Every structure is written in structure tokens, then in C-alpha cells.
């Protein structure tokens, strides 16, 4: 086994290959199917591109970010296309996840225990997604839709009445700010705070121990399959 | 863009260096009551600014084009008006009004794409323009036009290149009736007020100078025989204002947004310092 295979996990059966999920795979639990992983990275990549090119236009303090895209002119030209691709990916995620993200009593319970979650204390009865993840999902879908609609108005200003433009600019900016804050925490949680989480989106599998600790009810359901 | 005029305001920038020199505020006076619709100003504008000619259509008036375009910055609007059985053409020179408080400049996110010189002229610098069109929505007079090919926005420069070397704008040079005048704003306001008094004597009771305060006054001022109804002159707004959303975005949303994003990063960092990485039980 070469070193590269050990890192990617190809040779050790750590990658979830197909559309099977929420089941055991050896000593691992399959968390995200290939479809979900591809859609999520699609969304992530085009979000970052749209976010950075949009940030350049948000405030002169971030205008330097336009240099990533070859200057302000090309940042402005590319931004709507990044955003359309982002919206498409988000829609694909919506198709797969909207049923899994229905709000349950356990999610209200999770919200009540938010302080415990912040302190890394155990919360029982968490399914595949916790209340925070569900809130983030629905906020992203709704926010993405409004960003898309207001963005089209901003893209073709002369095709829309003035009052609609006057509304679209500030709403687009408010959502930009909300998305920025949400993404800071989304990245912080997965990359820094909760170890063993990122692999759910890279390999599609997580360890049994991670599953027991973070999503106990989901682990029980998966191990019964 | 001439470089020998000092800049007073600049788009998407924390402000130009404080200048100590003050320049007299310039203005263009348009007396709509002595305009004969000869269109010499339109031709002069096209020639001086070396603009391509635009294809027009027949839409039932003598007006050159239906609307301003990216290659046509100065359009005489031929408005047909009937009152008390009398027919009159209410000519209006549609062009950038060079607002003292320019909405376009406030809306522009590209540093240095829109500037206001200390003599009051508002100028676009296409080299810095990114083609977002924000200025089009920010303008209370619907003046800036985007060039579909280059994606850049154009409008009347008040011939800033001519003014910077002591010449009057090309349209004023060409006007045969003297209905266009160029000078300092104070002088031209005096002349305009005298003309308004004359018009009142001639029976135009509501004659007025159009220098709307909602945009801080303009550096293109207009004498209107029907000053109480500026909308007769091809949709000149009665009380134009810098759109409110611009101030809200610039003074509220952007500083609060920048602060909240910074607070978000600090909050995540503080959490990491206090709780570190979560350790899962075996």
C-alpha cells in the first residue's frame, strides 16, 4: 500500500462509494453518499468564489479581493455566474435533504440544550442532523433563494422597476452579512472544533465512536440496518 | 479624465487627501424658454467627445433619439404641450445634472470610477469602471447608460477636459440662441432669477429655476416656464432625492456588517481558546 492510498483511504475501504448511507461499512458508519458529497463540494466551491467576488463589491475594505479574479471588472463579470452555479448545487442538496431536515421534537430539545452543545456536553436523542444543522440548512436554502432573486434584479438593473432595485440592493447585502457569519461558524465547527467531522464530507464515512458521540440516535438506527 | 482639476469626492474610497485650494463652483444654465430645438448642442457633444452616431427610429416627433444612450449624452427632448388652446414645444436638454450630492458616486463600489472635482463636475473614469450598473439605480435622473459591448457606463462629463483648460463645454460653444450659458454657479443663478422675473412678467406665473435641493442642488440649472410642473419636460422629477437606500447601505449596513463579521471571527477564536477541540468519549 503506497502512502497516498493510506492518506485518501482508498485501499482501506474508508470511502463510501455508492448511494448507500446511514449504514455500517466495516468499522465505519456511512454518513454521506457520493451524490451528497459532490453536491456539497460543488456548493462549497462556488459559494467561496461568489462570496469573495461579492465581498469585493460589498465594501471598499474588501476591494483587494477582486485581484483574485483579475480585477474589479472580471470579479463583477464572474460573480453572477458563480452564484448561478452555487444556486444549482444548493438546489441539488435541497432535493436530497429537504425530507431529512424536517423539524422534530428532538430538534427543539437540541435547541434548548444549545449551551450544553457549546460546552461540548452530551445531548441525547440526536438523529442524523441536529437542530442547528437543520436550522442552517433551511436558512441557507431560503437565503440562497432570496440572494438569487435579488441578484437577478441587480444583474439586469434596467429590466426592473426602481422600487424593486431599491429593495434588492440592501436585502442582497443583509443576506451577504448573514451568510458570512453563518459560514464562519460552519467552517469553525467542522475544521477546528469537532474533530473527525470533516471526513464525513471527504470520505463519506465517520468512525463508530464519532457517530455515538455526536449523533447517538442516528448511530443506533444505522447499526440496526 | 483631466488630471489638473482637484478631486473633492471619490467613489468607494475613504476620501481624497484634504485639499486646501478651493475652486469656484461651475454650472451650466439651460433656459428652456429660448431653446429652438436646433440640436447644435447634440452635434457638438458628439463631435467633441468623438461618439459614434446612433441609429434612430421614427417615433412621431422631431426628437433625435427616444432616449439617452451610452454614445449619446445630450438629448433635446421635444415635449408637446397644449394649454389654453395654445400649442408649445417644451424643449428640455436631458443630460447629467452634475448633482452636488451625486447618488451615482455614492452607489459606486469601484474605487475611483466616479469622482467629483472641487468645481462641482461629476466625472466617470471608465478605466476604473467595473460595469456593475449600481450608478444607474443610484441616479435620481436616470442618466448613466451602460455600453452593451464594453460593459462600462457613460454620461455627460460637462466637458471636464475642456473646462480644465479654461474652455466652456462644447454644447455651450455651439448654442446659437444663448439659451445655454456656462460660468460660476452664483452668477448663473442671478441670471436665471432675472429670466424668471421676465417670464413672470410675460404671464408665466409659475416660472422657476430648477436647482433641486434634494440632491444638494445641481451644477446644471434649468429655467422652466412651468416651474410648478417639471414633469411636463419629459419626466423631469419634481423633487429628486438621493435614494434613501444608499445612505442606509453606506452608513448603516456596511459598518455594522464589517463589525459583525469581525465579531464572528473573534467569537469563534474565543470559543476555541476556552473549549479547544472536542474530545469524543471512547
Tags for this model:
heterodimer, A: about 220 residues, mainly alpha, 3-stranded antiparallel sheet, 3 strands, about 65% helix, about 5% strand, B: about 280 residues, alpha+beta, 4-stranded mixed sheet
Spatial extent as radius of gyration of chain A = 20 Å
Beta content of chain B: 15-25%
Tally of contiguous helical segments of chain B: 7
Biggest sheet, spatial arrangement of strands of chain B: 9-2-11-10
Low-confidence blocks of residues of chain A: none
Annotation, overall tally of beta strands of chain B: 11
- Percent range for β-strand residues of chain A: under 5%
Give the helix proportion of chain B (percent range). Answer: 25-40%
**Rg of chain B computed from alpha carbons, rounded to a whole number of angstroms:** 23 Å
**Helix-strand makeup class of chain B:** alpha+beta
- Please trace the helix and strand order of chain A, writing H or E for each element: HEEHHHHHHHEHH
Shape type of chain B: elongated
Average pLDDT over all residues of chain A: 93
Strand order of the largest sheet of chain A: 1-2-3
Fraction in helix of chain A? 55-70%
According to DSSP, the number of beta strands of chain A is: 3
Structural write-up:
The complex is a heterodimer of chains A (225) and B (282). Chain A is mainly α. In chain A, 65% of the residues lie in helices and 4% in strands. Chain A has ten helices and three strands, in the order H-E-E-H-H-H-H-H-H-H-E-H-H. In chain A, strand 1 and strand 2 (28-30) form a beta hairpin. In chain A, helix 2 (34-58) packs antiparallel against helix 3 and helix 3 packs across helix 6 (131-155). The model of chain A has no long low-confidence stretch (mean pLDDT 93). With 282 residues, chain B is an alpha+beta fold. In chain B, 27% of the residues lie in helices and 18% in strands. The chains are: A mainly alpha (225), B alpha+beta (282). Chain A binds chain B through residues 56-61, 63, 66, 71-73, 75-77, 118-120, 154, 157-158, 162, 165-167, 169-170, 173-174, 176-177, 180-181, 184-185, 188, 192-196, 209-210, 212-214, and chain B through 12-14, 109-111, 128-134, 136-137, 146, 151, 243-245, 248-249, 253-254, 256-258, 260-261, 264-265, 268, 271-272, 275, 277-282.
Amino acid at each position: 500500500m503506497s502512502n497516498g492510498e493510506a492518506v485518501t483511504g482508498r485501499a482501506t475501504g474508508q470511502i463510501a462509494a455508492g448511494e448507500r448511507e446511514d449504514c455500517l461499512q466495516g468499522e465505519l458508519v456511512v454518513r454521506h453518499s457520493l451524490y451528497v458529497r459532490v453536491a456539497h463540494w460543488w456548493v462549497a466551491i462556488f459559494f467561496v468564489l461568489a462570496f469573495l467576488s461579492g465581498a469585493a463589491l460589498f465594501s471598499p475594505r474588501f476591494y483587494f479581493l477582486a485581484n483574485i479574479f483579475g480585477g474589479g471588472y472580471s470579479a463583477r463579470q464572474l460573480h453572477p455566474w458563480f452564484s448561478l452555479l452555487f444556486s444549482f448545487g444548493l438546489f441539488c442538496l435541497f432535493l436530497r435533504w429537504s425530507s431529512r431536515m424536517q423539524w422534530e421534537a428532538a430538534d427543539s430539545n437540541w435547541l434548548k440544550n444549545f449551551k450544553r452543545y457549546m460546552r461540548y456536553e452530551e445531548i441525547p436523542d440526536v438523529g442524523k442532523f441536529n437542530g442547528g444543522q437543520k436550522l442552517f440548512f433551511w436558512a441557507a436554502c431560503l437565503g440562497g433563494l432570496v440572494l438569487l432573486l435579488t441578484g437577478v434584479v441587480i444583474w439586469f438593473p434596467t429590466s426592473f422597476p426602481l422600487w424593486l432595485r431599491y429593495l434588492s440592493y440592501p436585502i442582497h447585502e443583509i443576506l451577504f452579512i448573514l451568510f458570512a457569519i453563518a459560514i464562519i461558524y460552519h467552517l469553525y465547527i467542522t475544521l477546528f472544533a469537532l474533530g473527525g467531522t470533516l471526513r464525513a464530507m471527504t470520505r463519506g464515512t465517520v468512525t463508530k465512536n464519532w457517530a455515538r458521540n455526536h449523533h447517538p440516535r442516528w448511530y443506533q438506527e444505522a447499526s440496526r440496518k | 479624465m483631466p488630471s489638473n482639476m482637484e478631486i473633492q469626492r471619490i467613489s468607494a474610497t475613504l476620501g481624497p487627501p484634504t485639499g486646501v485650494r478651493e475652486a469656484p463652483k461651475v454650472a451650466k444654465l439651460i433656459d428652456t424658454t429660448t431653446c429652438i430645438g436646433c440640436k447644435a448642442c447634440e452635434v457638438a457633444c458628439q463631435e467633441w467627445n468623438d461618439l459614434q452616431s446612433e441609429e434612430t427610429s421614427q417615433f412621431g416627433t422631431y426628437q433625435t433619439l427616444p432616449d439617452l444612450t451610452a454614445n449619446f449624452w445630450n438629448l433635446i427632448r421635444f415635449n408637446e404641450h397644449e394649454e389654453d388652446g395654445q400649442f408649445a414645444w417644451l424643449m428640455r436638454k436631458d443630460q447629467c445634472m452634475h448633482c452636488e450630492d451625486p447618488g451615482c458616486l455614492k452607489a459606486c463600489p469601484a474605487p475611483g470610477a466616479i469622482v467629483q472635482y472641487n468645481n462641482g463636475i461629476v466625472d466617470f473614469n471608465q478605466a476604473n469602471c467595473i460595469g456593475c450598473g449600481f450608478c444607474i439605480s443610484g441616479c435620481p435622473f436616470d442618466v448613466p447608460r451602460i455600453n452593451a459591448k464594453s460593459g462600462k457606463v457613460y454620461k455627460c462629463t460637462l466637458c471636464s477636459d475642456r473646462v480644465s483648460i479654461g474652455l466652456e463645454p462644447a454644447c455651450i460653444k455651439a448654442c446659437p440662441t444663448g439659451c445655454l450659458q456656462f460660468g460660476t454657479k452664483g452668477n448663473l443663478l442671478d441670471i436665471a432669477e432675472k429670466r424668471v422675473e421676465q417670464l413672470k412678467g410675460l404671464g408665466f406665473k409659475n416660472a422657476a429655476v430648477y436647482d433641486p435641493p434634494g440632491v444638494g442642488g445641481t451644477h446644471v440649472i434649468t429655467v422652466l416656464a412651468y416651474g410648478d410642473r417639471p414633469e411636463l419636460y419629459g419626466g423631469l422629477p419634481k423633487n429628486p432625492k438621493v435614494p434613501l437606500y444608499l445612505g442606509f447601505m453606506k452608513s448603516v449596513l456596511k459598518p455594522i456588517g464589517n463589525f459583525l463579521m469581525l465579531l464572528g471571527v473573534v467569537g469563534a477564536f474565543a470559543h476555541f481558546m476556552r473549549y479547544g477541540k472536542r474530545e469524543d468519549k471512547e
